[in-house]
Design a protein that fits this description.
The complex is a heterodimer.
Chain A: E1 5-13, E2 16-17, H1 32-42, E3 47-51, H2 56-72, E4 77-80, H3 86-95, E5 99-102, H4 104-108, H5 111-120, E6 125-134, E7 137-142, E8 147-152, H6 153-163, E9 167-172, H7 184-193, E10 198-201, H8 207-215, E11 221-224, H9 226-229, H10 235-244
Parallel strand pairs in A: 1-3, 1-11, 3-4, 4-5, 5-6, 6-9, 9-10, 10-11
Antiparallel strand pairs in A: 1-2, 6-7, 7-8
Helix pairs in contact in A: 1-2, 2-3
Chain B: E1 2-6, H1 13-22, E2 26-30, H2 33-38, E3 41-44, H3 50-59, H4 62-68, E4 73-76, H5 78-82, E5 86-87, E6 92-93, E7 101-104, E8 115-120, E9 122-123, E10 136-141, E11 143-144, E12 151-157, E13 159-167, E14 170-173, H6 181-192
Parallel strand pairs in B: 1-2, 1-3, 3-4, 4-14, 5-7
Antiparallel strand pairs in B: 5-6, 7-11, 8-10, 9-12, 12-13, 13-14
Classes of the chains: A alpha/beta, B alpha/beta.
């Protein structure tokens, strides 16, 4: 049976992982390669490396980092952050990324999804959507959630699928950071609307939230950052927990 | 031992190379016929579309070369599909090493296509190694090879399909051993340890 995937997400700035990390057994928790390998050994199913660098100079560091990650990691990984052209994506493919995620650039230039799917295959293209529920609408935001757009979550996700996205990575801005669970209602609706896999992001706080996102939210994969980095949730224990709840995990 | 990884216009060749590097195997990525012919083992990887890659193989006379190889050859993902007779993906005539047709997944209920993620394999042949039966490996594919007499491992998705094949000196896996953590590593090692 196809397993539900657990995906730790690492934010990278200038070649280093950011966000406070308190691993006891790691000499250098700021090293994305070492941290990625640690997660892979613990049973993470995939990893996402998100480049949050602000400058072009730092971005160059990212491509060489991606190559180093590809040399060391024996599980699939996605890279994202600042990818706005075929050339950007190609550089990361060349460096060894299995998938790229595009967000703001896809909103402003939806043809980019078609072009990337055609050039590299749908399996390479993850469309990330940040959305915030305002009254009855899920409003798509760009620029790390700073800018509201006229796009709505469900219609935009469908459009992305039709244009050739291989997966949708949906982050609920209402739930992100609150540690009160994922946006299961919206996720379930996405699941029924789409034929491609949905990765849930935003809201993980405890083990039960992961069970809920798979059973109620029907997500194919769940992504989280800080709960893993701060050691609040360990990947092996999470897998044991989910297995005890009869959820299919690796 | 020297491994040749066939170089052609498909993705993920580098990922396979990195996995060999992690196993500290001596390898080269090459489309040079003499280098491929004299290698101890050959890996035929691939992610991409069937018809354009077959055209490339024919243009570079790699199709006849691959079919004639005598040493153990491992097809991975698209590589495995191209080793069959025909693929429904853009109506493509393939190498014909395995006498099977590659079919498109038709979702029955709520299954998603492509089949992407970690799924288990049930081994029906010993070449993959004893320790990998019922273990999870990583798949990404929208087309599949039905179960047949050359099937070496079976996975269930929509219906049972061939996760691995074996015929004479030809071996193939539908999943990505290079992305399948320790289990994938063991399978690569099993292939590399085969005595030809």
């Amino acid at each position: 049976m196809l397993a539900k995937r657990i995906i730790p997400c690492l934010d990278i700035k200038d070649g280093r992982t950011v966000k406070g990390i308190n691993f006891e057994n790691m000499r250098d928790a700021g090293d994305p390669v070492a941290l990625g390998e640690k997660y892979a050994k613990e049973g993470a199913d995939e990893l996402v490396f998100l480049d949050i660098s602000a400058t072009q100079e730092q971005r160059k560091t990212f491509a060489s980092l991606v190559n180093e990650i590809a040399h060391h990691l024996n599980i699939p990984f996605t890279v994202g952050g600042g990818i706005s052209s075929i050339a950007d994506a190609e550089k990361l493919l060349e460096a060894g990324a299995d998938k790229v995620s595009i967000n703001s650039s896809a909103v402003y230039n939806p043809d980019l999804i078609n072009e990337m799917a055609k050039a590299f295959g749908s399996q390479f293209v993850v469309v990330a959507i940040d959305a915030k529920k305002e009254v009855n609408n899920w409003v798509v935001h760009t620029h790390g959630g700073k800018k509201a757009t006229d796009k709505r979550l469900f219609s935009w996700a469908l459009e992305a699928q039709e244009r050739g996205a291989g997966e949708i990575l949906f982050t609920s801005m209402n739930h992100d950071g609150a540690k009160q669970g994922f946006a299961n209602d919206a996720l379930e609706k996405l699941h029924h609307a789409l034929q491609i896999p949905v990765i849930a992001s935003g809201g993980a706080g405890d083990y039960g939230h992961f069970m809920d996102v798979f059973t109620l939210g029907k997500a194919d994969a769940a992504l989280a950052a800080s709960v893993f980095h701060f050691g609040e949730i360990s990947v092996p224990e999470l897998k044991t927990y989910l297995r005890s709840k009869l959820i299919s995990v690796r | 031992m020297k491994v040749a990884v066939i170089k052609y216009n498909a993705g993920n060749i580098r990922s396979v190379a990195y996995a060999l590097e992690r196993l500290q195997v001596d390898f080269s990525i090459t489309d040079r016929h003499e280098e491929i012919l004299k290698a101890d083992k050959v890996i035929f990887p691939g992610v991409g579309e069937a018809s354009s890659t077959m055209r490339y193989l024919r243009d570079h006379k790699l199709d006849e070369l691959i079919k004639a190889l005598q040493q153990p050859v491992l097809g991975v993902c698209l590589g495995m599909q191209l080793m069959c007779t025909y693929s429904e993906e853009n109506n493509t005539k393939c190498l014909g090493i395995f006498d099977e047709e590659v079919k498109k997944f038709i979702p029955q209920q709520k299954e998603k296509v492509p089949h992407m993620g970690w799924n288990t394999i049930t081994t029906t042949d010993s070449w993959l190694g004893e320790r990998v039966n019922n273990q999870y490996v990583y798949f990404v594919h929208g087309f599949y090879v039905p179960v047949n007499e050359n099937t070496a491992a079976i996975t269930q998705y929509i219906q049972p399909f061939s996760a691995a094949l074996k015929k004479d000196n030809f071996y193939a896996v539908q999943f990505h051993p290079e992305k399948s953590a320790e289990t994938g590593q063991k399978i690569l090692e099993s292939f590399l340890n085969l005595t030809s």
